[in-house]
Design goal:
This protein is of the alpha/beta class. 44% of the residues lie in helices and 23% in strands. The longest helix has 18 residues.
């Protein structure tokens, strides 16, 4: 469904990604990990066509997004839901208006019909619509805002792919668990491709079918949890070293669940 072929990307003269190649299949859950500044979030921007590489190809549904006109890219983006690190909700809009924003701006649906769709979506992401629909984002907790952002992405695009950039950063443990549970629910119930960028080891293990580790702009690992736990590649071991105890603890728990 999505494929990177020998992608190189630089900002000005600084090389960010070096010869990146990988595939993501429909309904697969991929987690991209790596140190800060390794190029993880840049990959999400490239998938959305917000940036284009200096070398290489990015194929989405058998089409090279780098060779598309902007109008064609917009059609591709309608199939991709994006949840940003801070939720990126509109501060001046109510919760239901945030969730229904795309429909309000780009369709001829009545306000009443969009409101009903927003209420239904809020329920789907585990929120009490009647309690929060008229509130502003600042009146909600960080975890609730993140779930509203996921609901907005789902209602806006009816996506075939969901992208998440550090979805639990800044959240308390209970809120993080709720957001992770929602991401897993969407992946299993709707069967869409899921790509998560995170440096949280527990999040990665909880969500991923497959892991990619990027260090200094290069893919140094691509495989499943068992392969990652046995990997002796120096850069992978170096990345995991600070989290070694927690990684093996959550990995062992996941193996038991499997």
């Amino acid at each position: 469904m999505i494929e990177f072929k020998n992608v190189y990307f630089a900002y000005d003269e600084k090389l960010i990604l070096k010869n990146i190649s990988f595939k993501v299949n429909a309904s697969e859950a991929l987690v991209i990990m790596g140190p800060s500044g390794s190029g993880k979030s840049t990959i999400l921007r490239l998938i959305l066509g917000l940036e284009c590489p200096q070398k290489g190809d990015i194929i989405i549904e058998d089409k090279n997004i780098c060779r598309m006109k902007e109008s064609q890219k917009q059609n591709i983006r309608k199939k991709i839901g994006m949840v940003f690190q801070d939720g990126a909700l509109f501060d001046s809009l109510s919760i239901w208006e945030n969730v229904g924003y795309y429909l309000l701006e780009h369709t001829n649906m009545s306000v009443e019909e969009i409101g009903q769709k927003a209420i239904k979506m809020l329920g789907f992401v585990g929120l009490d619509a009647q309690e929060i629909m008229d509130k502003l984002p600042e009146q909600l907790s960080g975890g609730m805002q993140r779930r509203v952002a996921i609901g907005r992405a789902l209602l806006s695009t009816n996506p075939k792919v969901m992208l998440y950039d550090e979805p639990t950063t800044g959240l308390d443990p209970q809120s993080a668990e709720n957001v992770l549970g929602l991401i897993k629910k969407l992946h299993h119930e709707i069967s869409i491709a899921t790509i998560v960028v995170t440096h949280q080891i527990a999040d990665a293990v909880a969500l991923a079918d497959r892991f990619i580790v990027i260090v200094e702009g290069e893919v140094v690992f691509d495989g499943n949890l068992e392969e990652l736990s046995r990997c002796n590649q120096p850069k992978v071991k170096g990345f995991l070293a600070p989290f070694r105890k927690s990684f093996f603890k959550v990995a062992q728990k996941k193996f038991i669940e499997i």
